[in-house]
Amino acid sequence: MDQPYCSVLTSKTTNASAISRWLCTVTLNDHPEGSPGEHVASFFSEDQGLSWTGPALVYPKLTAAGIVNSYSANLDTVTERVYVVANANLNNVSELPSGQHITRTDMLGYFVFRYTDDGGTTWNPELYNISYRQTSLDRANTFHGATDIFWNVDQFKYRQNHSYAMFTKVGAYAVNPPEQGFVLHSSNARTEPDPNKIEWNFLPDGDKGPACPPGYNPNTTNAEEWHVIPLAQSPGFYAVFRTNTGLLFSTRTSDATGQDGWIIPTPAQFQQPPLAGDTTNISAMLKNPRGPITLKPTVNGLYLLLWFNNGAKGFQTAVEASVSSRNPYWLSAGQEVDGGIVFTQPEVVLYMKGHHASDPLRVGYPDFIHDVDGSVWITETNKSTARVHRVQDSLLRQLYGQFTVATVASNGLIVDVTTPANGTVLPLPATIWPAPGNTSAYAGVTLDMWLEPASLNGGDTPLFISKGTAATLTLVQATNRSLTLTAADAHGVTSLTTDLACTKALAQPGPHHVGWTADVAVRLITVMVDGKLCDGSLVTPWGWAWLDDAQSQVGGGKTVDVGPGLQRLRVYNRALYVSELVGNYRAGV
């Protein structure tokens, strides 16, 4: 079960108490992804996902004929008619030009669509084909242009009743580079009642679309799963796409038509500028594996980006095989700046219990549902089960406010001391690191501090040691200015060290803000330096770590050994939002 993408309909409900109907389309298959039998089906719910009606085949004649149809996207009209656009292997191609038999055909063929006028209860019997404009990449593909290779994971977005979704053209069967992004655009699908009169075209004009970023080999570097945004505050477009470089890339154009002007792709950027000492600017770039993201408009002219915040270079490489690159999901808010979009530091929004790289422990191919009551939901799938989750209103408020927040968080603050002396007695609880199994949201602990590295002596220097009966929490700064937090008890050890970019920042003249958060529900430990969530820099895929599952409790010693250079220490009895740590940083010492 793949790509659960949804429409929110208010005039098609049959339950008098329902505020809306969610009409969702998915790609189904009883066999592995891409196998024969793959098809698009629809479900609907009138109780915000508690119960569902379906599945109903969207293309039953194609499915009955053994023609694979897949990877749908809903196009919503002003009358709440919903068009479902998908790939279909109409010519039933099953061989490569060499004569070799192939079983994966879900990315071959044509764009087709059908529609429903009653929220998915019934479907119009006609099947419509979208005329496909070939470009140089199609003509040079594995089939030499006789068959087109492409797929779409984007959702349709709208501006002035124009519709846009960006898809991937593929050069080498089945999903191999070279690859380029093109936008499927309709100027009138949202308003034209006659499907035969709908106008479709492909953007940009010309023979080439946005492609592999410069400096990378286009024949080995993926540039795929594009998501386009028709900007609201300026006339152009912005797009993001995944690669196998460990970075999330973006491109944009100021052309209001999208026909021209797409710039050379560059890494997607945080609002936060690069850290001091970061000559590569990596600390301003978003990292993402070859895993699915989504980007859509939300309230107040802002955007929501769901992504993975790690730099694994591929689906799952051997070196990284002990940890899933698709768990957890992180959420950032986006804001338009200078004809593009910049993003907040991310918050964990979805996670699977456990973190090893097996199929059940991954999330992907999501969509955002913005319901009429203001709630925001995420649909996602692990390729076998699709699910829907409500995003906490408090998390969204934190993300939307992160662009300007500059105040110190007070909720959960149990310690706030300035230049604490060695042997300071602090009112710490018996267990500052709760036991595993506590799934309360944001259960955990946060150490928030300002320190002055220049005052440290040579050698590894302990900055903070809290000793409980059978556990310790220790923070040490090394000679290269890296910081390592270690939590240990009789059952296990969790440790995290600042990455290269964060460490280089700490080596600059201070003071510096550092925030450590252990989220026991998620089982994750993170560190932030000067408003930037450390993400592994160019050295490691991850800048965060999973907590040792065997640990029961950490810390709890009220007498704390404090090293030199610690100017201020705050301790919270909960895991702070990343956005709150940004506010603590901007508020200053």
Walk me through what this model shows:
It is elongated, with a radius of gyration of 25 Å. The chain is mostly beta strands. A hairpin with a 5-residue loop joins strand 31 (471-477) and strand 32 (483-489). The strands form eight sheets. Strands 27, 29, 34, 35, 36, 37 and 39 form a seven-stranded antiparallel beta sheet that branches. Strands 18, 19, 20, 21, 22 and 23 form a six-stranded mixed beta sheet that branches. It has a six-stranded antiparallel beta sheet with strand order 28-38-30-31-32-33, with no helix packed on it. The model has no long low-confidence stretch (mean pLDDT 92).
Blueprint (SSEs and pairs):
Layout: E1 2-9, E2 21-28, E3 39-45, E4 53-57, H1 60-64, E5 69-76, E6 82-88, E7 110-116, E8 128-130, H2 136-139, E9 150-152, E10 157-159, E11 162-172, E12 176-186, E13 200-203, E14 224-230, E15 237-242, E16 249-253, E17 266-267, E18 269-270, E19 294-297, E20 303-307, E21 329-337, E22 340-343, E23 347-350, E24 364-370, E25 376-381, E26 386-390, H3 393-401, E27 413-418, E28 424-425, E29 444-451, E30 461-467, E31 471-477, E32 483-489, E33 493-497, H4 500-506, E34 512-519, E35 524-529, E36 532-533, E37 545-546, E38 559-562, E39 566-572, H5 578-587
Parallel strand pairs: 18-22
Antiparallel strand pairs: 1-2, 2-3, 3-4, 5-6, 6-7, 7-8, 9-11, 10-11, 11-12, 12-13, 14-15, 15-16, 16-17, 19-20, 20-21, 21-22, 21-23, 24-25, 25-26, 27-39, 28-38, 29-34, 29-39, 30-31, 30-38, 31-32, 32-33, 34-35, 35-36, 35-37
